[in-house]
Every structure is written in structure tokens, then in C-alpha cells.
Amino acid sequence: MLDGRPLIDAHVHAARLPTLRPAWRSWAEEFGSSHPWQDLYDEGGALVPERVGAYFEAEGVDVALLLCEYSPRTTGTQPIEDLRPLLEHDPRRFRPIANVNPHLHYPIGAEVERQLGFGAVALKLHPVHGGFGVADPELYPAYEVCRDAGLPVVVHCGTSSFPGSLNRYADPTAVDDVLRLFPGLTFVLAHGGRGWWYDAAAFLALSREEVWIELSGLPPRRIPEYYARHDLRRLARKFVFGTDWPGVPGIARNARAIAALGLDEETLALVLAGNALQVYKGLTVPPPTREDHRMPDAGPFTDDVVRQITRHMNEDHAADCLTICRALGGRPGATAARMTGLDAEGIEFAVADGGVEHPVRIAFGERLTERPQVRREVVRMTERARAALAGGLDVPDRP
């Protein structure tokens, strides 16, 4: 639950690090630099279920759909078996999505059925990384299994920068051909046509009831620009929230940025969780709470600006981050702190305290409207925090 609303992240990469190509690590480190995803792993490169569960809880995620992938030519092979520790740790919050590659799996229908035995709620196809077309007849048995089981097929529809990728297979128009052969099958267009196919993805979603757009990998503030030729309020009713974690500034941050687009409350609730509940079987979330649903918006701080400020704070002012969190963040016993994000209303940290990392948000003294104000506000916070730790200022509990 985030700000009183249920939240489902439909696109999460929960891979073991030894299975991944170096390019994947570089991608995650660049685009996920504002949050401590590396701290969720043990020394052997495996995710620690307790740490992952606490992290997604702190981000407000009620359900996370976890991806496996069999793409040895690009990102590597991340078998569905590697997801088992997370699935067993919290089977309500963590649900798997199956994946097949027609170059590797035969008979492919049997492999889909095998992976469904892990509780998979969908099948993911990655034509760009796997090097195949979505309308390849080799996939027909997989489509039959999904149609008969009432499960959606998630298709990567967007460019990829990983070495070995074949971006010509990202075009979503072939989905229309498959739907004519398999009526009743549901498709989710991951990445929403990123690159050259936004209009094609939008047209499919608006013209076909069984097609949805999943927002992973798309900066929320740019969504109106990407789909400028379409009625955003109408199209948004076919959106499914997803982040592409860990290559994202933050799950909660992206959800709040979606809220800042100005959608009506009913549509926003559909984007953040309601549509996923309709598309993916067996998911459960708590009911929304009766509280103020207004979310802070990013204001003038774009993803690039936040990434630059975060890097500067963590590289040049790590001691100040810790001082601020000890004195103003309610964590006097903290041993480490790193900035993870900010918006116009406040700054966010990940704070190590008692062997566990905690999210901390500290409100600014006023709503910021321009970048230079950040430095002045952080300096003010630091001076106030130092005074408090020296015993010269009584600092009330943070809101």
C-alpha cells in the first residue's frame, strides 16, 4: 500500500547475479543508482528473501511479479528455479512469470506447463533478446496453453541496448496476427512500444479489449509525450504499472510520478493495481484506505537531475547524509545513510540501523521550485542536524 492505494509492480527482475552478463550489471547500476539494490544480495550474488521483502514493503508494493529469462545471447539465463526462495518466503507478495525461448525449449507447450507449476501468473516472451518473432509458429503451443489456462502473454515491445539484441522483433503489430489465430488470448505490451512503436502499441490497446500496455522502463513524466497523439485519460485505462526494477530510480517514486500526471482517481487506481488484478489471476491486495490520496510530485526535478544530486550527495557528502538522518530522520543509532531520491516536497534516504536498512523521508521547509534551492535546503538541514547532535537544538519527531 502506497499513500493509501494498493500497488502492484508487474515487472521486476529478481535475478541471481552470477547468471547475468556484465551489460545487465552496468544497466542496473546506471539506472538504479538512486536506491541500494545491491544491498539486497548476499556475498554469493543471491537475493536475501528477508531483505527483499522488507525493501518492497517499504516501497509500498503489495504484489511484485518476478521475471525469469532464458536469453543466453544477451542477458544470460535466469531460470525460474532461482525465484523459488522469494516465492516461498512471501507467496502472496511475490508471484512468478514464466519465460520460454523457442530456440531453447522443445516441446515448448510442455515447458510452459512445467513453469506454471511454480505458480506463474503469466508467460513472458522476449523476442528482442531471444531473436525470434512473436508470430513464430513455434510459439503456437505456448499460446494454446496460456489461452486455455486464462493466463496473459507479456511481450517485450521496445528497443533494448544490450549487446546481441535484435530490435526489429520489438514491433508489436505482429500481436494482431496472433490474436486473430488465438481469440481469447490476452497480451500485455511490456515497455509500451518504447522507441519507435508507441503509436502502434496505443492503437492495439485502444482497439482490442485483450491488449494492455505495461509501463516498465518508461519515465512517467514523459508518458504524455510518448502518447501525444492519443487521449491519455482514455489510454491510461489500459495501463499496467511496472518498473523494470532494479533499473529504475525507485518504485514508490515512479508510482508517485504517475499520480502527478493528473489522472482522475478511478483511473489512477486502475493503473497502479486495478488493471493488474484484472489481467493476472490470483493476485490479492488490501483495500484502499480512506486517507488523502494526494502524492507529492517531482516538481522541477527530472530523473536526470535527481540522479546527479543523489550521486553528488553520496560521493561528496556521505557524512552529512548520516548526520541528517541521525538527528532529523528519527534514526539516532544509524551507522550509514545514503540519499535515494528527492522531489519538490522532501528528500529520501536509505538508513542502516540495527543491521537493517530503513527508508527515511525528511520534508523540506518549503516546496522547492528550482534546483539551486536544494543546496540551500540541505545546508540548512545539515546545520540544524549538527546543532541537534551537539545538544543545542531540540528537534521534534519527523512527520
UniProtKB/TrEMBL annotation:
Q: Which InterPro entries match?
A: ACMSD, Amidohydro-rel, DUF2470, Haem_oxidase_HugZ-like_sf, Metal_Hydrolase
List residues of the DUF2470 domain.
Answer: 308-381
The record ties this protein, via SUPFAM superfamilies, to: FMN-binding split barrel, Metallo-dependent hydrolases
Q: Which organism is it from?
A: Actinomadura mexicana
Boundaries of every Amidohydrolase-related domain copy: 87-281
Q: Name one Pfam family in it.
A: Amidohydro_2
Q: Where are the transmembrane segments?
A: none
Recorded protein name is: Amidohydrolase-related domain-containing protein
Which keywords belong to this entry? Lyase
Q: Which GO terms describe its molecular function?
A: carboxy-lyase activity; hydrolase activity
